Amino acid sequence: QLLQSGGGLAQSGESLTLSCVGSGFTFGNYAMSWARQAPRKGLEWIGGIYSDGSEALYADFVQGRFTIFRDNAKNTLYLEMKSLKPEDSALYYCARGSTHSAVREYHFLGQGTQVTVSS
């Protein structure tokens, strides 16, 4: 199970951090990722991080504004978002991969958390 928290409303240019706590599996054994879905659009991969946290990969649109990190001792994944734009408004999901390096795989998803950015 993946339980998400954080999100909500933000003004353009502000920052938000999302959290995702994993349970029922050995969190530190799996790659994790974040994805988002805007209204009337498909699921968009944001980025992912290897199981040991050694490296995170990002989609091109992130452009250095988002940072993914994890605390395996707390079974928690984070998405720090800075310089938010209205086009970042979406339902955000965390996801677990099937292996330690499957950073682009959605083996299963969290419940989703809404982020809305106003201009």
Walk me through the structure:
The protein has strands at 2-5, 8-11, 16-22, 32-37, 44-49, 56-58, 66-71, 76-81, 90-96, 108-109, 113-118. The chain is 0% helix and 48% strand. The model has no long low-confidence stretch (mean pLDDT 96). It has 119 residues and is mostly beta strands. The N and C termini lie far apart (34 Å).
Overview features:
globular; 11 strands; 48% strand; 119 residues; 7-stranded mixed beta sheet; 0% helix; 4-stranded antiparallel beta sheet; mainly beta
Short structural summary:
With 119 residues, this protein is an all-beta fold. It has strands at residues 2-5, 8-11, 16-22, 32-37, 44-49, 56-58, 66-71, 76-81, 90-96, 108-109, 113-118.
Topology, please?
Layout: E1 2-5, E2 8-11, E3 16-22, E4 32-37, E5 44-49, E6 56-58, E7 66-71, E8 76-81, E9 90-96, E10 108-109, E11 113-118
Parallel strand pairs: 2-11
Antiparallel strand pairs: 1-3, 3-8, 4-5, 4-9, 5-6, 7-8, 9-10, 9-11
